[in-house]
Design a protein that fits this description.
Elements lengths: L6 H9 L12 H16 L28 H13 L6 E4 L6 H10 L8 E5 L5 H9 L16 H4 L4 E5 L6 H13 L1 E2 L8 E2 L3 E6 L3 H6 L5 H7 L3 E3 L10 H16 L8 H9 L1
Helix pairs in contact: 1-3
């Protein structure tokens, strides 16, 4: 039971084995239903996925940004992060542009056993298609025009850490096939080389596209989609969690005030009412 389920509280609770939590004040019927669900989950333990508790009792390092929201949809996001953070399985994070997909990816990294290694974000839609394979897997000297030196790719650079593939729906099919090999076998080859390299990288992927539609159109590999979609987190848009509007507005205003090194700016109640009604 908690009176204030912040992101850290919610994630930590589920990461350390809590089945769920309730916000005070709560109805007795709500508690009864929760206990019943917990009992049913315990009975189905053989088919459940379990994640080991981290050995470290320290809080993960804080990043410059954090996930903001106390709404019921965001509580589900926090629970999902807590449940899967310590897994090595890939995670598919889905949500609209600006929903906070990278923040969720960073939280998964910060609460994982890999948090002392590298977290490397790559926007698949921001790199020219001709360079994307070399960007991920590296290349040998002379493997193509302009390859004057050997290059280490992102998977080699991030070995032991976490690679965040943003907008994975924009990844070309040729690169998708090599990514699938990494996910299935932990192996890849540099461009221009037959040597097989091994890597231990956790892949977090994010998209604002409907990948099922992309698969149907032949633009995204079906086998890669199913490999990524085993563990998924959906981030609700702000219109589905309107009770978080004030929290977000006040957070950004506070951060703006801190950057300007001036007095703390505040919203008037009229301004907050307008935001609530938007």
């Amino acid at each position: 039971m908690t009176a204030y389920a912040s992101a850290n509280t919610a994630i930590e609770a589920t990461r350390h084995g809590a089945f769920d939590y309730v916000l005070k004040p709560f109805e007795s019927e709500e508690m009864r239903r929760l206990i019943q669900r917990a009992y049913q989950a315990h009975e189905a333990m053989a088919t459940s996925i379990h994640f080991q508790e981290t050995k470290s009792e320290e809080e993960p390092s804080e990043s410059g940004d954090c996930i903001i929201g106390l709404s019921a949809p965001m509580q589900e996001v926090y629970k999902s992060i807590g449940r899967v953070a310590n897994s090595s399985e890939p995670v598919l994070i889905r949500g609209e542009s600006g929903a906070g997909k990278e923040l969720v990816a960073r939280a998964l990294f910060q609460y994982s056993g890999r948090r002392d290694a590298l977290f490397l974000p790559v926007n698949c839609g921001a790199i020219p298609e001709a360079l994307l394979e070399s960007e991920f897997f590296g290349h040998e000297k002379g493997s193509f025009t302009g390859a004057v030196n050997q290059r280490v790719g992102r998977f080699e650079q991030c070995d032991g850490g976490t690679l965040f593939l943003d907008e994975i729906g924009d990844m070309p099919l040729a690169v998708q096939s090599k990514l699938l090999r990494v996910l299935q076998e932990g192996q890849y080859s540099r461009v221009g080389s037959n040597q097989t390299l091994k890597t231990d990288v956790r892949v977090l992927a994010a998209t604002n596209k409907n990948l099922e539609d992309e698969v149907a159109k032949g633009k995204f590999r079906e086998d890669l989609f199913y490999r990524l979609n085993v563990v998924r987190i959906h981030i609700p848009p702000l219109r589905e969690r309107r009770e978080d509007v004030r929290l977000l507005a006040e957070f950004f205003l506070h951060r703006l005030s801190a950057r300007r090194r001036g007095p703390q700016m505040r919203f008037t109640e009229d301004a907050l009412d307008i935001l609530d009604a938007y």
